[in-house]
Write a structure and sequence with these properties.
Elements: E1 4-8, H1 12-23, E2 27-31, H2 35-42, H3 53-63, E3 66-69, E4 80-83, H4 99-111, E5 117-120, H5 128-139, E6 144-147, H6 157-162, E7 167-170, H7 174-187, H8 189-193, E8 198-201, H9 203-234, H10 238-246, H11 267-280, H12 288-311, E9 320-324, H13 339-349, E10 353-357, H14 362-368, E11 373-374, H15 378-382, E12 387-390, H16 395-398, H17 402-408, E13 413-416, H18 423-428, E14 432-435
Bound molecules: uridine-5'-diphosphate-xylopyranose (UDX).
Amino acid sequence: MAMRISVIGCGYLGAVHAASMAELGHEVVGIDVDPAKVESLAAGRAPFFEPGLPELLERTLETGRLRFTTDFADAAGAEVHFLCVGTPQKSGEFAADLQYVDGAFAELLAIVGPGAVIAGKSTVPVGTAERLAARLEEVQPEATLVWNPEFLREGFAVKDTLHPDRLVYGVPDGAEGERATAVLDEVYARILAEGTPRLVMDPSTAQLVKVAANSFLATKISFINAMAELCERTGGDVTSLADAIGLDERIGRKFLNAGLGFGGGCLPKDIRAFMARAGELGADQTLSFLREVDAINTRRRVRMVDLAREVCGGSFLGQRITVLGASFKPNSDDIRDSPALNVAEQLRLQGAMVRVTDPAALANAKSSYPNLVYVEDVEEALTGADLVLILTEWEQYRELDPEKAGELVAQRRVLDGRNAIDPAAWRAAGWTYRALGRR
Ligand code: UDX
């Protein structure tokens, strides 16, 4: 049955969620405070790079079931309100900044009707849902707050939303929780019909599930990067190590790609907010290992710069360095905490002449790192380079022909920050190949 849905916050999460809910057959209004974003979405243009989103927007806007507005009043009358605003890191501390959650929730309180379900999707410190539920109880006791975390990955956001691994509902006890569960089942009917596992639990656990999942992923990446550090000392090869341990089904090969480490708008800030929250709960020791996870991750960036300096003969002065990739990962234009840009900027500050190219993220990169030089065309970026760094493993960089690339550069020297290219093929074409955690 088609339901009336509002989606509050139309960033990476909300824009995809809104369009996906319309794709599932519902009547959806997406609300955001940013008029430019709303205008773009309403015109069918995705305000950020996300494969499949432009097509999904076009398809769902055409049905008339999806619209976008800045007017919060348009959320009134929705049976389900999805809260999808951001929870960035607070400036100057590890904790999450909840001002957008609190602001959007205050607006929701003004319009939420009896029987409505407010479903939080934002990643929040555990305890937030309980606090918001208490407020809701005072203002509209006949509405229900649930936590329904989202696990989408950028670059796969449409697929992850329409065909998720699992659905998690954090609902209150008793009849109210059962009713909210039935409402969410109706919203996700088509997804559930595919056999998607759905786990119903209390809101506190549901909030923890999200940060626990991201902490586990971050730990897995830092674990393999710690092994990379050891391989660097012993002359071992971290990719062979990852292949070998990854074949153990209990470990698994996914998320064991060593290299420059994790960045983006989620993993770094989520593990920090989790540590901050554990501290508030008097359990700071419990998550102190995440400090190490964070430290290993940031050390990779320093190591990359050191390796580049070594390859350049001890100094960056006069060296023309080409950085391939600016986004925090391929298939995204997101540069939040991008390891690639972090390294590029360090190289520049240490005297290198750095040129950065990326298929999607240059506009974002320019506004955050205005002092770097940006080149759109990869061939132009390679021309005359003394050293090439592959820092984001876009398909087009993985598939570079070492022979053709070699004809463009001044010196055939490449550093593979993502273990993305074949060392044998590049060495055969006369390149000096170096990578983190490899001989
Ligand atoms: C992550 C979670 O995967 C997702 O479930 C959650 O909803 C949001 O946070 P995302 O930030 O989009 O998603 O990116 P992800 O694909 O998880 O990659 C995160 C970072 O880890 C990237 O910088 C990536 O390059 C890095 N990474 C990933 C590695 O360094 N090695 C790996 O093996 C995998």
